[in-house]
Every structure is written in C-alpha cells, then in structure tokens.
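User: two proteins, same treatment. go.

Assistant:
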Amino acid sequence: MPVTRYYADHAWLGGGRTVAGVIIEVTGDRISALHPTTPPPHPAPDLTPRPASQPASHPTPQPAPDLSGLPAARRGTTGPPPGTVHLRGVTLPGLANAHSHAFHRALRGRTQRERGTFWTWREQMYGVAARLTPDGYHALARAVYAEMALAGVTCVGEFHYVHHDTGGRPYASPNAMGEALVAAAADAGLRITLLDTCYLRGGIGAALEGPQLRFGDRDAEAWAERAAGLRGGGHARIGAAVHSVRAVPADQLATVAGWARERGAPLHFHLSEQVAENEACLAEYGRTPAALLAEHGALGPLSSAVHATHLTSRDIALLGGSRTTVCLCPTTERDLADGIGPARSLADAGALLSLGSDSNAIVDLLEEARGVELDERLATRHRGHWLAADLLRAATSDGHASLGWPETGRLEVGAPADFVTVGLDSVRMAGAPVDALLESVVFGATAADVREVVVAGRPIVSAGHHLLIENVPAALSAAITSLTTSGPPASGAGRSGGTASIPTEDAHE
C-alpha cells in the first residue's frame, strides 16, 4: 500500500490553536501517523466566552521548556524533511458542504437583476429545473463540485429533488438524475451524500404543477421504493430528505423518517426558512413545522434542520433537546432575505451546527463560517459568540457527521486522509500572526486561498489547480450556457437510457 508523507507548515489538530511543523503520514486512503516536529506551546489562556460574573482564568506564567534533551527533529525544523510533500500554509481537515442544490449555481448573478422575494426567486429556479436532463445535470454538477473542491470542500451533501422527466414521467432508470450527481462527484474527486428528497405537493393544499411535477413521487411509499434503488459506494452514501412541511403532508412524514432510521441514514429537511411557511403550517395543523416534524419522529441526532430561521422558544428546545443538527447557510439566507436565525440560542440548547452553500450563489465555506458569527453580531450588537475553532468544527467534523461520515473531518490517526491547505501568501493572509492563524483563516481567508486538497489520500487540488478537471471555469461556463440559452437544448438518449424532452411553459408555484 503506498505511503505518502506530507509536511504541514501549520496544522489544526482540533484544539484552540494550530501546531507548527506537522508530518502527516498517509497510507492508502487513511492517516497512518501524525508527527509534530516542534514541542507543544505553552498552554493558551481559556478564552471561552462566559458571563461577566465568571471571569476567565489566568494561568501562572511558566518558564520556557528546556529542549536540550530532545532530538533535533523535536526541537523544530527549518523546513520540510527530505521525501515529504510540502503543504505551505495552514492545513485543516477537509470541509463539509452540508447543504447544496447544484443546479442553483446556474442562477448566480441572474437573480440579482430585479427586486423581489424568496418566492419570485423560486420562479426563476423552477425555470432552470425545467430544463435539466441527466447528461446536462451531470455536466453542471461535475463543474460545480470541482468549484467546491477548489474551495476546500471534500464532501458535499446534495439535497436532490429533480427526480423525473417532463411532466413527472419516470426515466427508464428511475434514479437517472441522482446517479448523474453521484457520478459527477466522483469525476470531481469529492465524497457525496445524496439526500434523496421526498417532494409530494406544491404547498399546503396545493398540487404539484409545471416543473414541480418532476420533483414528485406518487406518495411517500413510492418515494421510498424508488430511493431504495440508489446505491452508494466508496465515495458516496445515500440519505433521505423531506423537502419541507409545505411539500410533504403530515401523514407522509413518518414514512420518510422511518426509511432513514431503518438504514441509519441522515435525514435532512428545510425548516422555517420563511415566515409564510410557519403561518401556513399553523393554519393547517395548529403547530409549528418543528413541532410537526417532532410529532412524526423526524428529529434526532441523525437529522439536520436546514435554515431554522424563524423559530419559537419551544422550537429551539425541540431541536436542541433532540440533538438535531442545524445547517446554516448564511450567504443564501442573506441573498434570499430570509432573515437571521437564532444560531447561538440553538447551540446553547444542544443543537450542533453545520454549514452549507445552499443555492451556490457563493461557494466559500470560510465565508459561511464567519457569516454565522458576523450575522449574530448584527442581530445582537455584541461580538464574540463563537471561537474560530467552534466555527471550523461546524465546517469539518460536525458537518461530516451530519452527512453520515462521522469518521471524517478531523486530522487524527486512522481517519480518512481528507485535508485542505489554506495559503498564507495572499494579500488577505499576509501578516497573519502565528498565534492567531485559526482566527486569520476563519475571518480573513476566502476560497481563493485554498492551495491543496487531498481526498481519501488522493491529491485533487494542487497549487490552486484542479487535477482532474483541467479548466473548471470553462466547464462551468459551458454547462451553464447550455442550460440557460434560449431555445430547448438538444434531447435524446443519455444517462436516463431514454428520451428527455424540455418543457417551455412558465413555472408556477
């Protein structure tokens, strides 16, 4: 089995600070050894936020350690040892993008040309969904996932609901669209959790119509039968999703939740993204969306509530008490004018946090991470709600766990060899202090600072260039142009094994 030794200038091993000079030994697809080449620093002061009545401790200064008895390699090195691959910058576990709709990437910029609401944005999204084919979706997702890899994402949770052909007709291969996404992730070098989504109606009391017909199965049992045909693999796992309580009637929720529970699979759902969703749910069921999902067994440690923006205090207690993860998508929530959710209150109640790029208006998990803190500052007019390490855990280990990859997302022996290096040589990171590298990465770096990406021991990005897809911008441009130009794209036999026609009617809610 091949062994590769990497030398990281600085690595985050899960604590409050980075460690300088770490050798990461990779055997096959796993981390087989970690060797810091410098002694550990003095203990850092306890910086955990606490009430003013409970002051932080101030450790007694200790003398510098005597390194004279240590081997030279343990006293610190001036550079990478011979035979190692040099990771220049700060090396982190791979980032988990816990909520993506890959085809929304085609909307970037186009939806900013006019005023409107979430609902008017949704009409434009339906227009793109109407034109997708299995081959076209594969081409677009392949390029989008490559863009994610360039941003340091090593695992994506794809919330997938465009299942069928025009008018809701099944493809010859019923999961042609989902299979196209799984293949696209493999082509781009990413892990994927395909969150196959149950979507049965156009809203509370409304039937599916227009492009929405492509999303729907007959009922939850039909959804479960189709979803059971999906197969994962080395890079892919299968999960379930309830699109929302708008899209899945109450009497169908338990079927989806049970399907996921029986398989030990993650279950995700959009939750209270819009006030109108809450109002409609209260009118129909006399309870909030969170309470309705709890009543039907959809909350729990393997579940993720996406957005969770407009919650009552009881909703917060339900999510936190059940250890449901809350997936925050700050860039999309800003873009769609959703509002700022009660993230700190949810975390205090016991909910774990993950992060997602959602509509892919921006693909930058570092921006999503700092957005959690910065949005909370806007909402409360106070600073310092999370430490940088807390936000990185949401982007790494907690995000991976929410996607059904609990073994991934940390730099430790035995873990999958998924890691990312953020460079320190850009104008954004120039002058970053060694004792505040985590803070500099979270609050200063962007996706453009990602230099190296390794997934399952395989280099995917090197020196900022994707190694599997030669020209990612060109691939994105070609796929998006094909999907958005006037006139229907060519149809014919493709991944579906059948003919895919493209509707021209306007989208309706």
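Protein 2:
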Amino acid sequence: MEFQGWSDGLALRPRDYLGKGHTLAAAVGTAGPLRDETLYLFALGSATTMARLHLGGIAGLRLTPGNVVVGPRGQVSFAAGPRDSVFPAHDVRDWAGVVVFAATGREPDQGADLDKLLPALRAVIDECRRADAASRPSAVDLVRILLGHSGAAQGATVHELLLEAERRTRPEEPAPYEEHVVPTPFWRRPAYLTGVAIGIALVAAAAGAVILISGQGSAPEASDVVTAVGRRTATFSQVSDGVGTAGRVRSEGRLSFDPGAPATSYDMKLACGNDPQPVSVSLVGTRGTAAGAVFDTDRPPGESCVQSTAPTVRELSSPRTVQGLIDAAGTGVTSAPAAGNGRTLTGSVPAHRVRGEEGDATYAGLPAEGPVRFTLQVDGQGLPVRLRLRMESRGGAAQTVETVYRDWRAFEAIKGERTNG
C-alpha cells in the first residue's frame, strides 16, 4: 500500500492506516522479540500513529500482535476490521500489550516477563494498563514521555511534538544534521538491517508507523568504559555553557557507579541560573534531593534551576553516557595516543541515538537537536579523565560541556541527602 501522508496532521480516513503485509506476531515468531533502539522506535512510532488517528477521531483500533501489520518495506499499519469502541483509552491499553509482545514474544496476560523491559518503559506500560481507563495516559502523552519531554515545560504544541517523533522515525531519511556526521557503516543501513531482521525495520512515518532499525555498533578501538570503571567512585567537576535559561552551570562532587544499578549516584554542589551560590544536591536512582527538598529526577520541577539541571549533569557525565557516545558513534570513533599510556577518543553522533542512564530521558537521547561531538580522554586503564561535549541546535547555537574526572577509587555508597522535616 502506498502511504500518502496526513492532511494537516490529521488522520481522516481509515484506509490511511490499513495495509497488507506480515503481522507483528508472525515477524516476532520468525526473527524474535525486538531489542534496544528497535523496540524504542517501534513504541514511539506506533504511539505517534495512534495519536494521529485519535486526533482525527478514529479510535477503537483493537490493536493486537495479530492485526499490527509489517509491510514489505517495514511499514507498520493496522489490519482492516470493525472498531469496537470510541474510547481512545482502550487503544492505549491495547498498545501496551502490543509493545510487551514486541519485547517479549508474549502478551501481558499470557505470562510475559515484564522484567525484560527497561524500568522506564515498564513504568509506561503499567500506566497504560491501569484498571481505571480515565487514569491512563493519552496517545499524545505517550509520545511526550517516549521523547523525554516533561510536559508543558517544554512549550511544544501537540503538532510540533508529533512532528518531532515523526522526524526521528522517518524511514530512509537521515536524522537532522546526520548528513554532516560520520557515514553510517553498511551493516547499520536500513536495507541491510531489513534483510537481517526479516523485514522488521520498523519505522513510524506520518501515515503509518515505520521504524528504522538502527544497530548499535561499537568501534574496534573504542574503550569499554563501563567495564573499565566497574564498581567505583570518582571525584568530578563539570562546567556547562549555553544551557538556555540555566546559563552557566557549575557542579562538583563525587559520583558512584555500580553497573548493576539503574542509575549512577551523585553527591555534589551545583550552581546555575541567576543564583551563583552552590546548592547541595544528591541523586540516587530517580530520587533527587536539593537543599532538603525531594524531587523526581525523571520529572523535575521546571521552576527550580538546580532541580531541573541536576539530572542533566548526571546525564552528561555518567559512565553509561560515555559508553553510549562510543557505541552510537560506532566505527566513526577515532583514537590517538595520549599522555600516560592513555588515549583520546573523538567522534560525532546524532543526539537521539545516545542511550545513557535509565529513566524517561533515556528514550530521548542527549538534550540536543543536532549532532553531539565528543572528545574523551582515558588513562592507561581506560578510566575517563576528561569529557568534552559540543551539542548543536537547529538555530546554530551550541552548548559546550566539559567534565573532569579525578581519583577513581573503591566504590562509596551515596545514600542521599536528608530531607527537611
């Protein structure tokens, strides 16, 4: 079927999302469950298409692995059939079941192992499967969460939000600025990956979720930072310029990395915005504490510069993010000798491909619209010494972030700052 796109951002005709091809059930049965970025793009793309349909007044889609259809070029559409409900909340619950099946090969009510999902995606699925239909997120809410937006604080309209999702999942087109980044190796290109995955190159286009499988290659000479760090603590300092309303951000303290934990823990002093006085901040998992006030690191309050900026400090310095940069750049990473038997690694990668700390922000990649150019210095043991990031935006402005790591030592538990009262 030939997809012609949406009219003014609305899905107006059922035929726009009905197609022919192999069902998701058959595709997963042949090639196995989806993983990593493939699963993320499937979730984002299908949620975006569902949101377009709901905005066009089309609901009651009866989504199941048996009627989500994968076309010959990776297009995802929905098989023709009667619509049983006008309630979009029913579709949201069904969407969660389809995503669980895509990730595990089983539906939630058929013994699916939900522990295979990343914690952030598991939380989204649980919200969609609430017994009270009124408390479930809308399809647009799902897109916002999967993009890592914190809601109204981002200031994006629904139309802009969906366009952003569609740009990320558009088939056979480079992500913004990708033409200026290192060429994609042939084994990561859509045509090759479609053959390997037997047609499951799932990318959501504006008229049907269409998802591009973007493999995670690793450069032959790139350091395995997570293995090198192991379970350790380091002293760090970070300076960030050009961070919008936050202005110049300065932080210093210690980070404790445990590869078995979902997130790196931080104990630091942070100053940003118009207040030059540093504030004591601790981050342990998704729990943050700033000057005695507790906040959720996945959804920090926008009115507090320190609380909204602290998770970004972690996101831009964690060993997982360092590894994510190297993995996403793949063979585009270059390596040169550095002092003390160390190495300097350089590369460039689209921000949305970088997977770092777990949490809602994991799905969005790094907070940049264009490419992220990085220079990483590691010592003779492969431990990070200095990380410099340059993150570009469509308007031409660039944010630079430099993190210095010192005194890698035995792991020190960070329990978090005590709360007031």
